[in-house]
Amino acid sequence: MPFKPVRITGNRRQVGLALGKLGRPLMASYLDQSAAWAALRPWRGHAYLQELAGHAQEALPAVWEEFEGLAEGLRMPVADLLLWNCRGDLLHKTSDGCTSVALHAANGTRWIAHNEDGDPYLYGRCHVVDVQPDDAPGYVSFYYPGSLPGHTFAANRAGLVQTINNLRTRARRAGVPRMFLARAVLDCATLDQAVELLAHMPRAGAFHHTLGAAGDARLLSVEATPGACSAETVARRYGHANHLIHQGTRDIAQIITDSSRARQNRIDRLVDTWSEATGETELVAALHDTEGDLPILRQAADDPDEENTLATAVFELDEQDVALRIYDRKGRVAQDIAVK
């Protein structure tokens, strides 16, 4: 069945090694065709990259150990893999997209749903991993070859859910690379721990995090940038594309692509129609909406951001459990996973 989870266990280096081996068969051809990789290569050997590495090693030593294992498994120099995993911290515009929605249902269930948009080359070539490190709750995550898990959609065994949307801010600032922070969130046991991590770590790049947790009534929208971190509680329903929209962050210099603007406008209109009876069917329908020249569901070969929807995830959270259902682009269930 598509997206059947690949189980990985062990210490941090062993986990990274297994992730690297899983991605190795595709990595060279993936990078060869990647415009982002071509744009990154002038950064090889730059002192700023080493500064980012220092922040990651000091702040998140366990994640760094996993990262070194990832490089070993890929048979890729650590410096080159760091360059790749810092792409969003170095380049103002990368081919990472995504749209997320969140909803409080009338019966107390909370929903987080997400379109994972990325390089069209990866369609049908990504995995879902079920990772059980020795020293953390463990997690289920969509996995891009060669990238630390966590910057896509994921949930951990403590019941924490995270989906990530790319933000294209114009500022660079020395700090922890954004993909390392997204991975570190999956080691948190509670929403408060995750927000604390995002708010107080020095951040080199920008991501939007939609967060929820089993047993916690809140759903959170967090825009974390190199110079600010805004956390808003979702009152009832919410949608987010790929640019800053919070009151406290939307004036930060950023690139808003035509696709992101169109998807944000469309998801806002769709979310506004949701009622107390809204559930999974409506969430999937919104994320698979094809209205307009730059729709939410992205399948065009000439997408202006060079992105296509690779999978759609729906998380259902209640007082005890988190369930994940993954859909393909035709609206068919590709995988059902009880995370917690």
Give an account of the 3D structure.
This protein has a single domain, classed as 4-Layer Sandwich (Penicillin V Acylase, Chain A). The radius of gyration is 18 Å and the shape is globular. The strands form two sheets. The protein has an eight-stranded mixed β-sheet, covered by helices on one side. Helix 1 crosses helix 4 and helix 3 packs across helix 4. The mean pLDDT is 96. The protein is built from ten helices and 14 strands. It has 340 residues and is of the alpha+beta class.
* Annotated CATH topology: Penicillin V Acylase, Chain A
**Strand residue percentage:** 25-35%
* Quaternary status: single chain
Trace the largest sheet across and list its strands: 1-4-5-6-7-8-9-10
- Tally of DSSP β-strands: 14
CATH class descriptor name: Alpha Beta
Largest sheet: 8 strands, mixed
Q: Which series of helices and strands comes N to C?
A: EHHHHHHEEEEEEHHEEEEHHEEE
* CATH architecture group name: 4-Layer Sandwich
Contiguous low-pLDDT stretches (5 residues minimum) are: none
CATH superfamily: Penicillin V Acylase, Chain A
Work out the helix count. 10
User: Helical amount among residues, as a percent range?
Assistant: 25-40%
Number of domains: 1
Structural class: alpha+beta
What's the pLDDT, averaged over the residues? 96
- Our Rg estimate from Cα atoms comes to 18 Å
In whole angstroms, the N-to-C terminal distance is 21 Å
